[in-house]
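Case study 2.
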Amino acid sequence: MRNIRRIAGVTLTAGLAVSLLSGCGSTANAETSGVKASAETSGEAKEEKTDGVKIVEVAHTNYYKPYDFVTESGESDGYEVAVLKAVDELLPEYEFHYTPTTDDDLLIGVESGKYDVGTKGVWWTQARSETYIFPENYIGASVIGITYRSEDKDKYTDLEAFAKDGGKLVPIAPQNAQYAIVENFNSNHPDTPIALEASDQFNISDAYQWIIEGRYDAYFNIKTSHEANVVSESGEYHDLADKLVYVPYEGIPTWPLFNRDNQELADKYDEAIEKLKADGTLEKLSNEYFGENILKYVPEGYKKGDQL
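Prediction:
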């Protein structure tokens, strides 16, 4: 997902997808945030208050806006952070403490037990599922689609139309998740597959320029990245806003990662998420941070491990 964040204008993951973001470059740890950190790998609480409430150390990236970031006043914020705060409210036996940090510290910290939970817009992969606990319920979604020339707006109304027209897609590195998504699209549309060209990584500016020049017809991109880079007046490529448009394809679920010894906590999270879905809290928070319900883009009936 580091590639996706690059697309967002800040170098990111969504490798499968590229994410937009902004943030504070500081890295905090449990100790600087006023919470006593532990080097133990056990999933038991790092510390327990006198009233028996267990402290849960939650790490999140500090720059992945609007998923996870730090406000100007130094507060942890973002859609995924807000969801976890809502989960915490439903679990009186726990108290969540938040630590903004880097990708590497988050991943290593959750694996080692420094943090109980980590969230950073993660997509499920088989390899990661062998290192961390993925709960049954995803926390959000990363919407992926194509950025293409505005003159083709009426022609490429969705990815299926792009494929049927024989549109040429900007090359994708095989190790990126986007590559697998297009492969899966092709397997589901054998009569109108998208020509998939493998390539090494390149600068996002190259992709945009190749589209405008007509070298390629579209770039497989994350919606928040397109909005941050092109639509936003402060975006690095806002000068191309009248030349490029975007159409979504699907929502790729994002998940919090739990330390392998924290199955009980993951189960409690799942119970809480089910309630937050039912009472409309997830949709409300999505509308607040994204301006729409991003969960609607996830295919109906999606389950952990499904290939999109």
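The two ends are 16 Å apart (CA to CA).
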